[in-house]
């Protein structure tokens, strides 16, 4: 998986756990705690050239709220995707780099200038040319592997495609964990890459018409077991700490009307991974792929004790997903000590008025850092901007052209 995965503690830990022991603490204290201890990284200037339908955009951005208005298909999501690319060195919507280059062009580039509250600057450059390897630079220095950049600019994106977290396969839910953990844990990302390489090679051997070399097969299995043990431990720790945050945010958005849960299921729960991986060889030779390991992990999402996929309405599903991503934001803010950028793409559709009001109240306060938000409904934007105060910029997007209003 290598860069494809990328394309996928803090001294207050004691306070964090003490906080969760105090169930009756006021909700205001909850928010104050989590949004006090992180630096803020701001995207001040953004240049986009030949990215999807955007031919050229040079934008100076608000440190707080950046709103994009326009009809569907005009390029609002593409601009958010360009910001996403600067954090993950890949598109959020298309894993094939050559397909993000504008049809009429031979290359595309995205460049961002970031600053902290103290004025420290970071320049990130991502360039693609057809038929060539992409180039990613931080401060003018070229990365040997773009995966090294993951976590430098923490970011959380909420979009309609998040629906796949509930309706899609388990790979979508594993990716949610991987994207979150990889942004603050470099060792996790390295082990994820090791595991995927070994899994890919083992599957090639399982599909081979000739009998695989047993020693080579054992080497791949040992690598999967070693890397898989780290992956299992880090995912388990993440979900244990993440779930209470998620439940508190969901309770606020849904006004305590629903009970939600997350649980992590893994082959790592069954004991020694190496023995488990080796136990399936005979059957796997028939199937042609590996059936045991952390690549089969599952994140179980429930509403009132029942699977979200079966029980949730469209509004409940969307509330669940928004709470999930806002919890990811909070968790990353604590673990990375940098407030992530927050991208909100068309999040209000299919939500009732009370839930929209709660989300607007959440995102427009001081508890979040820099926010990018898209919508076709000017009314939603006006409510957000009225709450945000003076620090905002409103852009119109039409046929890939972005205009400051």
Question: Would you write up a description of this structure?
Answer:
It is a single chain. This protein is α/β, with parallel strands linked by helices and 405 residues long. It is 43% helix and 22% strand. The protein is built from 14 helices and 16 strands. The chain has helices spanning 3-6, 13-21, 27-34, 76-88, 164-167, 170-182, 186-207, 214-253, 273-279, 281-287, 308-311, 314-336, 353-363, 378-388, and strands at 39-51, 54-60, 65-69, 107-116, 121-129, 135-138, 141-142, 155-158, 260-265, 298-303, 306-307, 338-339, 341-345, 371-375, 392-398, 401-404. Strands 1, 2, 4, 5, 6, 7 and 12 form a seven-stranded mixed β-sheet that branches. Strands 8-13-14-3-15-16 form a six-stranded mixed β-sheet, sandwiched between helices. It has a three-stranded antiparallel β-sheet with strand order 9-10-11. Helix 7 crosses helix 8 (214-253) and helix 8 crosses helix 9. The radius of gyration is 22 Å and the shape is globular.
């Amino acid at each position: 998986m290598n860069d494809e995965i990328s394309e996928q503690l803090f001294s207050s830990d004691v306070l964090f756990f003490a906080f969760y022991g105090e169930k009756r603490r006021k909700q205001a204290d909850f928010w104050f705690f989590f949004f006090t201890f992180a630096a803020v990284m701001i995207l001040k200037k953004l240049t986009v050239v030949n990215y999807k339908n955007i031919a050229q955009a040079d934008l100076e951005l608000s440190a707080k709220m950046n709103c994009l208005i326009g009809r569907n298909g005009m390029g609002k999501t593409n601009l958010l995707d360009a910001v996403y690319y600067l954090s993950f060195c890949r598109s959020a919507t298309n894993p094939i780099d050559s397909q993000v280059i504008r049809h009429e062009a031979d290359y595309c580039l995205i460049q961002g200038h970031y600053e902290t509250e103290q004025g420290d600057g970071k320049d990130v450059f991502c360039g693609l040319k057809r038929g060539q390897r992409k180039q990613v630079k931080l401060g003018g220095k070229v990365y040997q592997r773009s995966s090294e950049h993951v976590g430098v600019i923490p970011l959380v994106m909420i979009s309609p495609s998040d629906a796949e977290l509930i309706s899609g396969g388990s790979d979508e839910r594993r990716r949610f964990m991987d994207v979150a953990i990889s942004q603050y844990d470099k060792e996790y990302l390295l082990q994820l890459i090791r595991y995927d390489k070994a899994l890919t090679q083992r599957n090639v051997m399982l599909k081979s018409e000739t009998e695989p070399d047993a020693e080579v097969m054992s080497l791949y299995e040992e690598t999967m077991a070693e890397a898989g043990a780290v992956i299992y431990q880090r995912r388990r720790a993440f979900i244990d700490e993440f779930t209470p945050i998620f439940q508190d945010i969901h309770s606020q958005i849904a006004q305590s009307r629903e009970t939600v849960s997350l649980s992590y299921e893994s082959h790592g729960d069954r004991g020694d991974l190496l023995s488990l991986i080796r136990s399936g060889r005979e059957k796997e030779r028939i199937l042609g792929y590996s059936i045991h390991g952390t690549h089969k992990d599952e994140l179980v999402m429930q509403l009132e004790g029942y699977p979200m996929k079966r029980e949730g309405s469209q509004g409940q599903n969307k509330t669940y997903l928004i709470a999930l991503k806002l919890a990811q934001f909070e968790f990353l803010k604590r673990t990375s000590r940098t407030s992530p950028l927050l991208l909100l793409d068309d999040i209000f559709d299919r939500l009732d008025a009370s839930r929209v009001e709660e989300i607007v109240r959440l995102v427009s306060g001081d508890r979040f850092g820099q926010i990018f938000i898209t919508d076709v409904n000017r009314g939603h934007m006006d409510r957000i901007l009225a709450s945000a105060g003076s620090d905002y910029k409103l852009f119109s997007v039409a046929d890939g052209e972005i205009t400051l209003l």
